[in-house]
Amino acid sequence: MSLKRIAVYCGASKGKDPVYMERGYELGKYMAEHGYELVFGAGSVGIMGAIQNGVLDHGGSAIGVMPRSLDDKEITSQRLTELVLVDSLHGRKAKMSELADAFILAPGGAGSLEEFFETYSWAQIGIHDKPMAVFNINNFFIPLQTMLDEMIDAGFIDAKYRALAPLYDDLEALFESLENYESVGTRSYD
Fold first, then answer.
1. Residue 176 CB neighbour total at 10 angstroms
2. Nearest CA-CA partner of 42 in 67, 6, 5, 17
3. Quick check: 75 pLDDT over 90?
4. φ, ψ for residue 44 (rounded to 5)?
5. Nearest-CA neighbor of 103 among 51, 39, 45?
6. Where would one find the signal peptide in this protein (predicted)?
7. Mean pLDDT score of the chain, rounded to an integer?
8. How many Å is the maximal CA-CA distance in the chain?
9. What is the full DSSP assignment across 138-165?
């Protein structure tokens, strides 16, 4: 699989530990150095801004997707390679999905999880069949993995989806998994 554009869902906050911003910047740098374009929520602050800066500081491209109504509130980056304005948050997610060849979840809050889980559920029902991975900075997503495992064990998510969005703290392994993605198929209704 040849991936060009990667959508990253992440926070507009920086978190309490500086490691989130440092590793976010590393993610952006890695993307630029390996020819991946960033598709993201267009914010200039928090881990979102760190990832963007890592991309742009190393000669990469950053495509930001921002709802018009949040253009001022979310501190839209002025450094973007391209800004795409949409009518709503729903439009933002749809546009990011349309533009992206793959998806990464990095640390963030409820909005990041909401974006990720919509993409996750879209994969389950066949709206897309694109690779997904989770950048597990500082073991941030271990509780999320535990919750997904509980949902699988309880029979609410098919066991095959254990492999849908694996956790990685190593960037090389993360991107290798995206590049070598094998479809897990759509949900079965038993």
1. 13
2. 67
3. no
4. -100, 0
5. 39
6. none
7. 93
8. 50
9. GGTTHHHHHHHHHHHHTTSS-GGGGGTS
Report pLDDT digits (tens) over 155-180: 999 999 988 999 999 999 999 999 99
| Helix %, strand %, coil % of the chain (to 5) | 45, 15, 40
- Tell me which residue has tokens 């941030």: 140
Sheet bearing 167-168, strands edge to edge = 82-86, 62-67, 37-40, 5-9, 102-105, 132-135, 167-168
Copy the structure tokens of residue 149: 């495992």
| pLDDT (average), residues 107-133 | 94
Is 5 in contact with 118 (CB distance < 8 Å)? no
11: three-class secondary structure by DSSP: coil
Nearest one of 99, 105, 3 to 48, comparing CA atoms: 105
- Phi, psi of 4, rounded to the nearest 5 degrees: -115, -55
Are the C-beta atoms of 103 and 123 separated by less than 8 Å? no
Residue 141, burial from CB neighbour count under 10 angstroms (0-12, 13-18, 19+): buried
DSSP 36: P
Quick one: pLDDT at residue 115? 95
Determine the straight-line distance between the first and last CA of the chain, rounded to whole angstroms: 31
HSE, CB side, 13 Å, CA atoms: give it for residue 117: 12
Class of domain 5-179: alpha beta
